[in-house]
Amino acid sequence: MVLNLTLAVADAAIMKDPTRPIVLSRIANSASKVPTASALSLSVIKLENNHKIAIINDKVYQQGHRIGQDKIIKILLDRVIFSSGKELYLFGHSVVNVSK
What is the pTM of this model? Predict the structure, then answer.
């Protein structure tokens, strides 16, 4: 009897909640993945007159600024282009790793 109760508790800990919305479980699963220090995530691009800024990993950058060894050479409406040729997109699931 004790063995059955122990297995039931272990199974309950492993099982996912079937009433939990799929979207929330995906967000929770993706939030648990911690990016490396060199992983970049673009959240905002602001273009105003000739002033262009990009918010990457919660920090403000302009064209010409460096992130690690990569330099931001262009900020466009939907993406940031680095000197290495890598592009970081505003929409979609874009994460870029740069050299330190």
Answer: 0.56
Residue 84 phi, psi (nearest 5): -75, -10
Would strands 95-97 and 87-89 be described as parallel, antiparallel, or unpaired? unpaired
pLDDT in tens, 54-75: 999 999 999 999 999 999 999 9
Burial 33-68 (b: 16+ CB within 10 A, else e): eeeeeeebebeebeeeeeebbbebeeeebeeeeebe
Strands (E), the chain: 39-48, 51-56, 59-62, 66-67, 70-75, 79-82, 87-89, 95-97
- Cα(30)–Cα(46) distance, integer angstroms: 26
Read off the tokens for 55. Answer: 């918010």
Identify the pLDDT of residue 39.
84
The amino acid at residue 93 is: H
